[in-house]
Amino acid sequence: MSKVRSVGEEVWKHKTDKINSELLTLTYGSIVAQLVADFDHDYAKVNKQLDKMGYNIGLRLIEELLAKTGLPRCQNFRDTAEAVAKVGFKMFMNITPTISNWSVDSKQFSLVFTENPLAEFVELPDKPNARDLWYSNIYAGVIRGALEMVQLQVEAEFVSDAVQDPSLPTEIRVRLVKVLEDEIPPGED
């Protein structure tokens, strides 16, 4: 997995259709604003919906990632973290978060973002509980959905977000819950 970073760079340069980052940012902002309005500023529900949307996106993005990169199967959770950060985020968002804060058992790590294209031009609403909104929570869902498709059940949640507090980095904590067994559909032995 030592060449993972170069795979991400290569796919970004030559195999990925690109869109204007400002268009993406503004479109995503409109989606979040509409969810906030639809859920009447209930940020817990907005966070849940963003996670659900991300999960469904992740279920599909992993197929494109595997098809375009030809990455070998990850041997352990550390390899998986490298693939997520250095290939997945690079390929789809042109960013490479830092992997840090590994747990002793190597079943948890953090992705720390120095830049976040989704959070450009963002100001949280002037509401008392607006700090409960994890603006880029779609990322957590994408990670969960993509990794579930490769037989890894994980939890992904925000620890901090520069949108909420610019003095803090944006950090997502990813925890391996379990390795899923390949399941044979009922009646097909």
Automatic annotation (TrEMBL):
Location(s) in or outside the cell: Endoplasmic reticulum; Golgi apparatus, cis-Golgi network
Listed GO CC annotations: endoplasmic reticulum; Golgi apparatus; TRAPP complex
InterPro entries in the cross-refs: Bet3, NO_sig/Golgi_transp_ligand-bd, TRAPP_component
Biological process terms in GO annotation: Golgi vesicle transport; macroautophagy
Keyword Endoplasmic reticulum: yes
Keyword RNA-binding appears in the UniProt entry: no
Keyword terms: Endoplasmic reticulum, ER-Golgi transport, Golgi apparatus, Transport
Highest taxon listed in the record's lineage: Eukaryota
Main location: endoplasmic reticulum
CDD domains the record matches: TRAPPC3_bet3 (cd14942)
Name of one Pfam family that matches: TRAPP
Family in the record: Belongs to the TRAPP small subunits family. BET3 subfamily.
Record protein name field: Trafficking protein particle complex subunit BET3
Organism name: Wickerhamiella sorbophila
